[in-house]
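hi!! sorry for the late reply, been swamped w classes. u asked for the two structures so here they r. pasted raw, havent cleaned anything up. first the sequence of the first protein and right below it the tokens
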Amino acid sequence: MPTLLPEGGPRRLLALSILVNMFGYGIYLTAGVLYFTRSVQLPAAQVGLGLSVAGAAALATGVPIGHLADRRGARGVYALTLALGAVAMGGLCVARSFSSFLVFATLGSVAQLAGPAARGPLIQRYGGERPAQLRAYLRSVANVGISLGALVAGWGVHVDTRTAYLWLIAGSALSWAACAALVLFLPAVPPLGPGSGPSWTALRDRPYIALTVLDGVMAMQYRVLTTALPLWLLAETTAPRWSVSLVMLVNTVLVVVFQVRASRSIDTPRAGGRAFGRAGFALLVACVLFSALAVLPAWCVLPLLVAAVVVHTVGELWHVAGGFEVSFALAPPHAVGQYQGLFGMGSALGVAIGPALLITACVEWGPMGWWLVGALFAGTGALMPAAVRWAERRRPHRDPEDTPVASPARTEKSA
């Protein structure tokens, strides 16, 4: 863990707060659906519908919350989103009907999506010259927190009683509240200036919207290992059932250990665009390998599965690292939160539509569907460098020689 945490001070405290928050989120992610169906006793179809509605409603909040963080101060707005998450988890503890479940699940989705938008200006300020590098550290820490939360949730799932599920959801609420308290100890980040453009500049920035859409398409790769692959393994291959857990273990360990390293050399927007290209090719190779699992003898399914997961995770690492750099470096300094909110909307939409598309293509269409999905990822990655160049041409203050852009903190110091 010490190698996963940035240097002391605000960076370390921010990482600690995210570890606490993601611990609670990992609990909810693992045990939430079971709590709704087995403890609240809602039909599974209602739970699925409610979570989809909640996610769709939250999509509209990223840009406004990010804009509010830019104008009113990111620390306070971020703490408010965390407090909202605590209220949502606490409300789910007393939910007894579909309507109350829908209200609090929606609040939780809003907190989960709006939080990173409000956190964007904090990362920009504390990250110095390389905010994307700090974001990579935070992602590694977040994965550790989610994994620890999932382990704790496993106890509740094993016990499978209402009391156990209530303790888990209540623990998640406490983690959100504790994170909000920790954030208040961070140094205040003053509100950013209004800039020279319109207030809702992100929604008028066509190159950045193009980057957001491409990242959203690529973000469907997050659902490959959690949705399409488990169904494919159990229905079409001779892989043992426990291989589903092996997939997540390999992926999580690699992300925790290598996300920071994958981000170190990606220090300019164009390097981020090239990383998307490499990511798309790696994801294409992984999809081809996944499709081959259905026709291989049992003795070589597991080795090839592990190899394919490793290749997929390499693509994920490049995709995430490129996204961190592009989303921060091409956002105007006066509207970081607003732009982070927009970029997060693309990823959230890709994650939301991913399961339906991937199940149809990969599971129902078979190997051909896997190849088409891989080609979609590769094509998206190939388009990203051109989109980055378009965005750079619309920003005359960017260095045409593709050098890193100084952070606001460094500019003030130099002045």
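now the second protein. again sequence first, tokens right under
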Amino acid sequence: MRVALADGGDERAQAAARHLDQEGLAVPVLVDDPEGLRSPAVEAAASASPWAERIDRDDPLHVAALMVAAGEADACVGGASRPTADVVRAALYCIGTAPGVDIISSSFLLVLADGTPITYGDCGVVPEPDADQLASIALSTAATHQELAGGTPRVAMLSYSTLGSAHGARVERVRSATEKVRCRVPSLAVDGELQFDAAWDQQVAAIKAPDSDVAGRANVFVFPDLDSGNIAYKITQQLAGARAYGPLLQGTARVIHDLSRGCDAHDIATVAVIAACQAARRTR
């Protein structure tokens, strides 16, 4: 799989490219000279976008995303030196959303110290999702978990309340989102609203949500807002020693992922491998 590295002029991306190439993990394409990569197919992809007037053909991030849209790369990774908002705009303008998806969001794949994979969403894009957006985030995060971690996603819609223990507009929004998820994908295991302890701990779940198929067994956690999601993944990373991969963009027509500006070469290579694996699975 060809992965366009939008931070081609960054030493970290260059080191990641060497590692990917040497280990045969992906075919890296360093985007450090946008002009040299503006092929006829890339130009056609830019012109075909409904956001064509907002595309900057001199921006390496936009050109990397256009390469994916044009089929000249299978996935794109960028953001080592750019804010998440720039990567999301590149994804929206140059690639667009997947069929049936109305919002681009993000998730983090976290691997706990014992090797257990869990997925958090949204931790990087949508500040205050409404019920419809929260439902879309839940579905996208469940799909990301299944694609990367395998197994059956079990989705906990998180709140400060568990199944009616508290009331208020924020709780009602999570309840509404949960019902929307159930209506859209009846086969998905989802429950809410749940407090994190009820979602994670089987003993607590037996007390707070004894009839739930998700409580105490969740592996996908959907946070009610960006504050809680972003704080939670950093706490899990720092205090629990989890390995955190992301923010992984989701809901896009083709694979494009963000990077933390504090990333190192290993982080870039890892996210590039994730992107390549997703692209390969979708191709199959």
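hope this helps!! also noticed smth abt the second:
The chain has a mean pLDDT of 93.
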